């Protein structure tokens, strides 16, 4: 697990909310505090879909909503003249990318053992921090996936030209 302090918040928010830089993620949950506190549960709502749609992986491929689908809603809640007092997003890397993260290291952990590669994005009114995490389906002694995910996030931030420093 690493924590990165974003040094150019305006640039980051533009990439996060107005660009497609984070479209390889799913939203688990979000909390946005402006004139109200808005909470979003990123789990897909079974009652919304027909039973055929619910079972169709083309329509609903993941448990959580794709960031690119929910991004405009979050953008509408945040945009305006006044900065939010706080927000917190919990994102998961789309599961199909897990194998490519794991194959970059010497580990026996497989993609089906990884529940999620997680990216927490927290703003507290003073600064914006990204915190990585890894969730597994069972306890594993091997911490290599955590290290690989941390490295992948650093590479992602560098590639997207997002300025940060380790917190």
Q: Helix and strand string, N-terminal first? A: EHEEHEHEHEEHE
User: What is the end-to-end distance?
Assistant: 11 Å
Major pleated sheet? 8 strands, antiparallel
Q: Domains counted in the coordinates: how many? A: 1
Tell me what you see in this structure.
With 167 residues, the chain is α+β, with helices and mostly antiparallel strands. The chain has one domain. Helix content is 29%, strand content 30%. It has five helices and eight strands; from the N terminus they run E-H-E-E-H-E-H-E-H-E-E-H-E. Strands 1, 2, 3, 4, 5, 6, 7 and 8 form an eight-stranded antiparallel beta sheet that branches. It is globular, with a radius of gyration of 17 Å. The termini are close together. The model has no long low-confidence stretch (mean pLDDT 95).
Short overview:
The chain contains 5 helices and 8 strands.
Explain the layout of strands and helices.
Elements: E1 3-6, H1 9-18, E2 25-33, E3 37-41, H2 51-55, E4 65-66, H3 67-78, E5 86-93, H4 98-102, E6 114-123, E7 128-136, H5 144-159, E8 164-166
Antiparallel strand pairs: 1-7, 1-8, 2-3, 2-4, 2-5, 5-6, 6-7
Main attributes?
single chain, globular, alpha+beta, 8-stranded antiparallel β-sheet, 5 helices, 167 residues
């Amino acid at each position: 697990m690493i924590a990165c302090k974003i040094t150019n918040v305006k640039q980051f928010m533009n990439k996060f909310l107005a660009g497609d830089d984070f479209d390889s993620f799913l939203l688990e949950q979000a909390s946005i505090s402006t004139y109200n506190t808005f909470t979003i549960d990123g789990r897909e709502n079974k009652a919304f879909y027909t039973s055929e749609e619910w079972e169709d992986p083309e329509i609903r491929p993941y448990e959580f909503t794709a960031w690119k689908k929910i991004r405009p809603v979050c953008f509408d809640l945040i945009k305006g003249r006044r900065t939010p007092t706080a927000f917190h997003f919990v994102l998961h890397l789309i599961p199909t990318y897990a194998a490519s993260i794991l194959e970059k290291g010497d580990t026996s952990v497989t993609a089906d053992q990884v529940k999620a590669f997680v990216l927490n994005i927290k703003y507290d009114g003073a600064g914006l921090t990204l915190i990585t995490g890894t969730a597994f389906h069972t306890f594993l002694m091997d911490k290599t996936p955590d290290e690989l995910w941390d490295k992948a996030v650093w590479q992602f931030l560098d590639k997207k030209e997002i300025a940060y420093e380790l917190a």
